[in-house]
Specification:
By secondary structure, the protein is an alpha/beta fold. The chain is built from 15 helices and nine strands. Helix content is 42%, strand content 17%.
Length: 350
């Protein structure tokens, strides 16, 4: 019996990416996989992105939106237009190698209800207007045997390296348009909690672009709105995990990520938000995720988590800060993580 390749729909949300979107379109156009449709949703760009996209109207389906409504809305719009058996969400500044889609489809085509990931590296610009360099990712790959635990503790894969079977994507429920930071993490963790299998492709690679000035994402991530968005993500995950038979096995990860988020909120001057994070950390977590050492656990018992953290903030301002706390609270260009290197999967504490 002859195998007929299923159609792959690549959805690219684009907002003010005129400098990059042409290269992204070209990387899709040269795929070795024979059946690909590319839908580019321009999300109300004001920098000429739509004009660049229209130059490729023989290669892409152009879907302009009248105003900017966010990447999640643009992705949902693209997914609604997509006809493919498989879906990929490729941002307008990221790239994929020629064999990426072929390798990803090969990994999932015989596995209903699955998604696949391929190897990926970063495209990094060390100075503004400088050259782009391909550098290794600092995130372990492939994801661990329990990818949901991995996503909770900092082991993740960007959307440009993920291919969804349509049934897996529909099981996940699509993109949550109310989430402005970590919307891809929300989608993936929701999918994993609902039973979507995550497979690894043996060929192909994606390149995730990391900008020198981060195009404002750092400030968005650490703003009160960005932190609240992240809290919503982990509250959503906690609700999904609560339905699983092995819910208790995620208590340490949930406690750690919520505790870390509260630490950032407190250091950024958002005490009410920090209080909400600490409340949920105590609700969903365990004692080890509140403090890694016995003196810390004693302080939590005596002072409570919020007061203990206020003491830690005061000490940090005087220069007394642990390596883990410094890693969590200091601004970073790349995507925020709640566990420092070596703490992914909780180490020996899991």
């Amino acid at each position: 019996m002859t195998y007929t390749p299923g159609l792959v729909s690549v959805v690219t949300p684009c907002y003010n990416a005129a400098l990059f979107v042409a290269e992204t379109i070209e990387s899709v156009a040269v795929q070795t996989y024979p059946r690909v449709e590319h839908i580019v949703v321009d999300d109300g760009s004001s920098d000429g992105s739509l004009e660049v996209i229209r130059r490729y109207d023989q290669r892409v389906q152009v879907a302009p939106l009248p105003q900017n409504r966010g990447a999640a809305h643009a992705r949902n719009r693209g997914a609604a237009l997509a006809r493919g058996e498989f879906l990929m969400f490729l941002d307008a500044d990221d790239l994929i190698s020629r064999e990426a889609i072929h390798g990803l489809v090969a990994a999932v085509r015989s596995h209903p209800g699955a998604a696949a990931v391929c190897a990926w590296r970063r495209l990094r610009q060390t100075v503004s207007s400088g050259p782009w360099e391909v550098v290794p990712s600092d995130i372990p790959f492939p994801p661990p045997p329990d990818p949901l635990y991995g996503w909770l503790t900092g082991v993740w894969v960007p959307p440009c390296a993920v291919l969804w079977r349509r049934d897996a994507y529909e099981r996940a429920g699509g993109w949550d348009e109310s989430i402005t930071v970590n919307d891809d993490g929300d989608l993936m963790m929701r999918a994993l909690a609902r039973g979507v299998r995550l497979l690894t492709a043996t060929s192909g690679e994606a390149w995730y672009r990391e900008h020198a000035l981060d195009r404002g994402s750092l400030s968005n991530t650490n703003s009160e709105q960005g932190l609240r968005s992240q809290l919503r993500v982990y509250q959503n995950v906690a609700a999904e995990v609560a339905r699983l038979d092995g819910a208790a096995s995620y208590a340490h990860a949930l406690g750690m990520v919520l505790h870390g988020l509260g630490m950032v909120a407190l250091h950024r001057g958002h005490p009410e938000l920090a209080r909400a994070c600490f409340r949920d950390a105590l609700r969903y977590g365990d004692r080890r995720s509140m403090a890694r050492t016995w003196p810390g656990r004693v302080l939590v018992s005596v002072l409570g988590l919020e007061r203990k953290e206020r003491v830690a903030v005061a000490l940090a301002k005087l220069g007394f800060v642990t390596a883990r706390r410094r890693y969590i609270i200091e601004p970073r260009r790349s995507r925020p993580r709640t566990a420092p290197p070596g703490d992914e999967l909780g180490g020996a504490d899991r």
